[in-house]
Amino acid sequence: MTTNQFEDFDAVSSKQWKQKIQFELKGADYNETLIWNSPEDIKVKPFYHKDEFSKRFSTGTRATAFKICQNIFVYDIEKSVERALDALNRGAESLRFTIEDETLAVEKLLEKLPLENVPVYFNMSFFSIDFVKRIDAVALQKKGNFYYNIDPIGQLAKDGNWFTTSEKTNFDSLNLLANTVTKNAIISVNASLYQNAGANMVQQIAYALAHTNEYFNRIPIINQKIVLKVAVGTNYFFEIAKLRAIRVLFKLIAKEYNHDLDCHLLVIPTKRNKTLYDYNVNMLRTTTECMSAILGGADTIANLPYDSLYHKDNEFGDRIARNQLLILKKESYFDKVNNPADGSYYIETLTNQLAEKALVLFKDIEANGGFLKQLNEGIIKRKIQESADKEQELFDSGKEVLLGTNKYPNKDDRMKQDLELFPFVKINPRKTLITPIIEKRLAEKLEQERLAAE
Q1: Helices (DSSP H) in 256-314: which residue ranges?
Q2: Same-domain status, 93 and 28
Q3: By residue range, what is the domain housing residue 30?
Q4: How many domains does the structure of the chain reveal?
Q5: 322: closest CA among 286, 292, 351?
Q6: What's the chain's Rg over C-alpha atoms?
Q7: Residues 129-167: pLDDT tens digits?
Q8: Domain check: are 326 and 277 in the same one?
Q9: 133 and 40, same structural domain?
Q10: How many Cβ atoms are within 10 Å of 125's Cβ, its own excluded?
Q11: How far is CA 185 from each of CA 66, 112, 225, 359, 381, rounded to the nearest angstrom?
Q12: Is the same domain home to 42 and 93?
C-alpha cells in the first residue's frame, strides 16, 4: 500500500511564508529588499503561491512541435541550394531564404529541395505578386509548405516607405494574393523590429497585435495562418510569458473576426543585447533565448550565429547556431513535453500581467485611430524611443549588465581587423513617408569608442 507522504505535512499559506521571510530579513523592508519593478511596471515578488493565484487567461503552448530553422541569404543559387541541403542533412528542419532580387530563378532554388517535409520561409525585400505566384506554383507541384511572410506595414515601419508607391496598392495586392493563394501562409507581422528597437515587452505584445489587427481590418478573407516574427531577449521567464501572452491575445482578437486559425510564431534571438567584443558570450545569450522560445511555444526558431554582427554568413557560425538548438532538442529533451510552463505560478502570473497590460495598450491604440495612424503620426516610434532611452541609461550606468562589455571587459580584446560587416546603425538619408523605426544595440556607443582607441 502506498501513501502520499505529503499528507504528513501541514500546508503552508503565502501569509506564513511572508512572515518567515520578514523574520529572516531582521528588520529590512520586505518590499524594498525583495521586490523589484520591471520596465513594464510589473512588481516581481520573491515567491508565488497558489492561494494568491487566479488564472486569467488559458494558454495552450506546444514545445514538441518546434522546428529548427536555417537562415540562408540567397545570392548564388547553386551555393544556396548546396548550403540548404547540407543544413538539412546536419539537423535543420526548416529553411528561411532571404531574397533581394525579384528576377531570381526561384524555381531553380527550390528544384532539388525535399519540400514535402521541410517548411520554407521567404524573407523578401520586395513585394511582387508574380514572384509569389511562381513560388506557389512550385508549392502546389511539390506539395510544399511555404510561408511568404509579406508585411507591407512592417516595411513601412522599418524602411519609412511602402513596398510600392501607395498604401492602397500594397493592400490591393495583398487582398489579391489572399484570394488567390489558398494553402500557404501569406501575411506576416515583423514584431521583432519593436524589440530590437528597444520597446518594452508590453509594447512589443500590443504593437504586434495592433499591427496584426490592421490586416484583419483590411483583408476580409484570410484562410491561412498569420506568421508573427518575434525576437526574444535574455529576461528568461518574462520572455516565456511574452510568447504565451501573444498567442493568447492573438486568439482573442482573431475570434472577433471569426478567424479560427492560430498564429504561427517564428522566433529569433534579439540583436539588441549582442556584442562585438567578447563575442563568445553571445552564444550564452542565444542559448537562454532559444530556451525561452521553446518553453514559450515557438513554432519555429531561427537562431542567431554568435558572430553575425561582424562576419558574413559562414559555415562555422551557422553550424554552432544550429547545434545549440539540436542540443536543446535532442540532448536536453526540450521537445518532450507540451505546455511545459503550465503550473508555474510565476510564469502564469507574468503571462496574465503582460497580457492584461498589453490589452489595455492595444485598446488605447485602437481607440485613437489604430496602429497605422499612430505609426504615420510618429507616436509608435516616439513611445519605443522613450523605452529604449530608459534601457540605454541603465546600460550606460552599469545597472543593466552585458558581461564582457560594460562589466569585466577584456581590455586586450581587438576587433578592428575582424570586421567584415559594419556592426552599427547605418544612416541612409533619403526621402521617406515617415521616420522609420531604427534597430539599435545597447553596446554600440561603447564599442565605437573602443574601436576608435585600438
Answers
A1: 281-296
A2: no
A3: 15-47
A4: 2
A5: 286
A6: 23
A7: 999 999 999 999 999 999 999 999 999 999 999 998 789
A8: yes
A9: no
A10: 12
A11: 17, 22, 6, 26, 28
A12: no
